[in-house]
Design a protein that fits this description.
alpha/beta, Quinone Oxidoreductase, Chain A, domain 1, Rossmann fold, 7-stranded mixed beta sheet, 15 strands, 25% strand, ER
Length: 328
């Protein structure tokens, strides 16, 4: 099969087209003919950092985590899928799991679900990593109807899904963005936009919550921005973040009695730990999408498999609006 190989890691690394053996089917797995995949920040981190990241596969590697496609063959013990099923999931591209920048991938059946009928393959491929992350974070933080929820980075990959899911669960949603296009997208998706470049945390907390703070903060920016989340949260509030690799003063969180939920959605893939939860979440996301309450936003630029490097560059440029998707 055709695949895009990364023979070495680093800022100057390039994807090279190669013919590699088609992956062999295993018990509990399905063979997927890939229609589309998408690029996530973690993919670019692996390409740039290689061995510095403990989750990077050894080179030469086939990267790519998200996939949408059709089941071409089913392994021993599989009763939940049939040949021809259109599926999606986050299935490889790290550790010893082959990635999705190829024509085919063998995926653990616990990591996939049938895609929503009203989404294209491109749209379905955009969802798995970011949508599982958003869903897990909101659930762990106890999302509920009537809550005031703040999403940091609501025009980003994870953020634009978290915003829609929070709305679906009945919350009153607010979201930060840093430019006219970002703020317009946030508003279009049904949240109240907040320009973090011109509005201080204290000011928008006062304006939107009467100074009480947000009951739930979903911080897809994380790092140093977590201090803003602590400031924006209500007493005994809940904070979910996807980026906690930092040193931070927890005193503000202590005196507010905040709960911090760190979401690292790759754990089931990396450690073969409760992988079935990803399939369960994806099945819920399919229902939400089919109800019309979840629509992924795709970047306007389109890329073929041969243009994997350009797709990575697009995401790294910071100019992409929505998910960068690769057509296979």
């Amino acid at each position: 099969m055709k695949a895009m190989l990364l023979n070495s890691y680093g800022a100057d690394s390039v994807f090279e087209a190669a013919e590699v053996p088609k992956p062999e089917l295993k018990p509990g797995h399905v063979l997927i003919k890939i229609s589309a995949s998408s690029v996530n920040t973690v993919d670019t981190m692996i390409r740039n950092m290689g061995g510095e990241l403990p989750l990077s596969p050894p080179a030469p590697a086939i990267l790519g985590m998200d996939v949408a496609g059709a089941v071409e063959a089913i392994g021993e013990g599989i009763t939940t899928f049939s040949v021809g099923d259109e599926v999606y999931g986050c299935v490889g591209g790290l550790a010893d799991l082959q990635g999705t920048l190829a024509e085919y991938v063998v995926a653990d059946a616990r990591l996939i679900a049938r895609k929503a009928k009203n989404l294209s393959m491109r749209e379905a491929a955009a969802l798995p990593l970011v949508a599982i992350t958003a869903y897990e974070g909101l659930m762990r933080a106890g999302i509920g109807a009537g809550q005031k929820v703040l999403v940091h980075g609501g025009s980003g990959g994870v953020g634009h899904v978290a915003l829609q899911l929070a709305k679906y669960f009945g919350a009153d949603v607010y979201s930060t963005g840093g430019g006219e296009k970002q703020l317009a997208l946030i508003e279009r998706l049904g949240a109240t936009p907040i320009n973090y470049k011109t509005e201080k945390v204290e000011d928008y907390v006062g304006k939107h919550t009467g100074g009480a703070g947000f009951e739930l903060v979903f911080d897809s920016v994380g790092g140093a921005n977590l201090s803003n989340s602590f400031e924006a949260a209500a007493l005994n509030g809940q904070i979910a973040t996807t980026v906690a690799m930092c040193e931070l003063d927890l005193n503000p969180a202590h005196f507010k009695g905040l709960s911090l939920h760190v979401v690292f959605m790759l754990i089931p893939m990396l450690h073969d730990h409760q992988r079935e939860t990803h399939g369960e979440i994806l099945r819920e996301l399919t229902k939400i999408a089919e109800s019309g309450n979840l629509t992924p936003v795709l970047d306007e630029n389109q890329y073929s498999l041969d243009q994997a490097g350009e797709a990575h560059a697009r995401l790294e440029s910071g100019k992409a609006m929505g998910k960068v998707v690769i057509d296979h």
